[in-house]
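Table 4 source record.
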Amino acid sequence: MKRALASDIHSNHEPLPAVLADIYEQGIDHVYCLGDVVGYGPNPRECICEMKRVAVCILRNRDEAVFAGSATDEFRPSALQAVEWTCEQLHDEDHEFLHELPRHCREERLLLVHGSLKDPTSEYVLSMDVHSPIKMMDWFDRVDQCPFQGHTHVPRVFCRSEFLRPNTIEHRYTLTNEKVMINVGSVGRPREGDPRACYVVLEEQHVVFHSVEYDVESTVAKIHRIEHLDDSMGDRLREGC
């Protein structure tokens, strides 16, 4: 069975039709979202509506901050303002949807988190962490299957002592008995220097990274028109950073 795994939409609706069309053209009807449906962008309700239709959607702390109506100290002022604005845009059924999202998902050999196995909702797994053997050992000791994650917005394959970029492995990785962690990148706010929306397809033992073009300028213009969303949230989309 083919599965598509996407993450970090962040209220950016423009890439969703393009990504979903790309997915369905491949005959895939099992779509999984790894969290951060809302936050930053101009269309939170539209993104939630799309995610209500997918097979599984899990929780991230930005989603949690929105349904709780509050944010933590980790949020910058512009991000906090976006959370508050997003909260005001949502209806009761949207808050209920976010509130009921699971923090992780296990399905046969498939394990989905947003952050890490240690902290599924919030912990970052960064490229620089491969230089910390203790931290990597802590994560990999928790792995009994291949976990897929988001949160950093940067697609990666993490081995115990190194990470692999999609463009260095021809955007394809074959799973073996070796433990790895796979970051699926971001649909709504890519940060790999590429503005295209990123997601992965899992078919048996093969993981394929996909990038899809969308109308970035439409999202940028929407953000610029909304007083409570910082212009930089749109400007950074152009550069994928």
